[in-house]
Amino acid sequence: MMQQTRPAYELRNIRHGYGQEFVLDVPELTVEKGISLGLVGPNGCGKSTLLRLLAFLEEPNSGDIRFEEMTAGADYASLRKQVTLVLQEPYLLKRSVFDNVAYGLRVRGEKEGIKKRVFEALEWVGLEPETFAYRRWFELSGGEAQRVSVASRLILRPKVLLLDEPTASVDTRSAALIQKAILDIRGRWGTTLVIASHDLTWLNGITDEILRIHSGRIVGSGVENVLTGPWIFNGKDLWTKQMGDTARIFATRPPDENSVAILHPEDIMIAIEEPASISAQNILRGTITYMTTSRQKDKVQVMVQTSTLSLTCSITHYAVSSLGLLPGKDVFVIFKAASLMWQ
Amino acid sequence: MDYITQGFIHAVRLLLSGDEQTYSAIATTLKASSLSITASLFIGIPLGFILGYLNFPGNRQIRAVVDTLLALPTVVVGLFVYAFITKRGPLGEMGLLFTIPGISAAQTILVLPIVISLTATAIESLDRRLRTNLLTLGARGRQIAVTSLLEARYAVLTAAVTAYGRAISEVGISMMIGGNIKWHTRTITTAIALETGKGQFALGMALGIVLLSIAFFINWILSVLKRKA
């Protein structure tokens, strides 16, 4: 009989917050072993809180987190030896780079081959060991400090590596080196990765799947657009969300006036000229701010900033080239009222 | 004005010639203050750490009392310790009155609030990310506590140096508990007070120069440590 392997994490009915206000509400989430999972969403949406729970830094106010074969009531301190988290802002101990990278090994009581392993870990993140190992904590740039922070986790060979905005305060070279180091260790040890980031291009290059979090809830996978209320009935058959002075988004009947709607990037069209007559109710003027590759073959993700809302659209390569889409170009985004899916 | 200049020249001569009386007071001062600072660090650092690291009921009230004791007058400490170690006092049999260990015991009480308060502040001022960082690296309770204290090492050393400066420069305790006995318990500060009263400016100035030099040295160490912290 084949032995069934459990997922890395199984979360059930998680509710967690600080004070009276709940910031995270996850009825169900399974993270398979060996997967690389991305988390996206606006600041304060609960990404970091979810990572802290997955890192066993906090116990949820209610609900259950299962880690591999862990039984209920397992010792969090021993679980933290298998799971580690890279913080958004690196904190280095007031010691040399060598001692920072070796710290995790030392607290585990490991003494054999520390120098070899520290030097190896520094090489993984693109830091020349001979140059950096004996530098002091304040003799590093922000990017170098973050790479030391990553190296001090990689050396531990964790089962799960969690990263909270690892490239938020680093230059593009450091971001690329961190990405390479993470992919290398994943290939080597099959490490499960959960990464929160705003950098979609970077995240697309490192993850198998992306979850979008909004106001503490997982609202979709991928790069769906999230539209929040209030929705006001227009007196006929549609509901509207006012944006700025004149622009409005039309929607079909929401469950309630403060409902959250999901708009899939594939459901949005882009036009250069304003269409004269079209069945779609929503036609918004905007400017392309950002274009990046998509995980879907032959697609490009195009970010369009409308008056108060940034929308991600998924466009074919052919459309991009035939319409001559480039960042900075003024366009119209078009979608049906019925395309909005209520959460 | 002339007598001040003459006093200064004579003071330098006393120091350069290795005058026994001068060096006896210096040695007594260094012995007493070193003993007191060692004792206060042994007691004060763990207490300060607990006060700054742990959040327990009554923590803020204890902290308020410790902070108030920072301004403890030396003569009040001298008075209480005298009452305890005098022949009629509860600790009279220990024979501490008019001895260097007696001075040290009272100085320990004087500087203990400094060590406790500054250590607690140093621990409280540690970066909030430190604990999270250590947890994510797999550290547990005692490992986190020890690492936190090591992270605050420069600030804790600053506390030690500040306390040493207070111990070495006090006069009330040395006078009341030590009794200012020549060759025995006469410290730099009590000698300066006595010699100035007798009109012996040279010896007073010589000792004053030494005390100032020690103060400058302590200040220099303090500024180095503060930069590092």
Describe the overall structure:
- The complex is a heterodimer of chains A (343) and B (229).
- In chain A, the strands form five sheets. Chain A has a six-stranded mixed β-sheet with strand order 5-6-7-3-8-9, with helices on both faces. In chain A, strands 15-19-16-17-18 form a five-stranded antiparallel β-sheet. In chain A, strands 2-1-4 form a three-stranded antiparallel β-sheet, covered by helices on one side.
- Chain A has helices at 47-54, 76-79, 97-107, 114-124, 129-132, 142-154, 172-189, 200-204, 317-323; strands spanning 9-18, 21-31, 36-40, 62-67, 83-86, 160-164, 192-196, 209-214, 217-221, 225-227, 232-233, 239-243, 247-251, 261-263, 269-271, 282-293, 299-305, 310-316, 330-335, 341-342.
- Chain A has 343 residues and is α+β, with helices and mostly antiparallel strands.
- In chain A, α3 (97-107) runs parallel beside α6.
- Chain A is built from nine helices and 20 strands.
- The model of chain A has no long low-confidence stretch (mean pLDDT 89).
- Chain A has two domains: 9-219, Rossmann fold (3-Layer(aba) Sandwich), CATH 3.40.50.300; 225-342, RNA polymerase II/Efflux pump adaptor protein, barrel-sandwich hybrid domain (OB fold (Dihydrolipoamide Acetyltransferase, E2P)).
- Chain B is built from eleven helices and no strands.
- The longest helix of chain B has 34 residues, at 20-53.
- Chain B is globular.
- Chain B starts with a helix and ends with a helix.
- The model of chain B has no long low-confidence stretch (mean pLDDT 91).
- At the A-B interface, β5 and α3 of A face α6 and α7 of B.
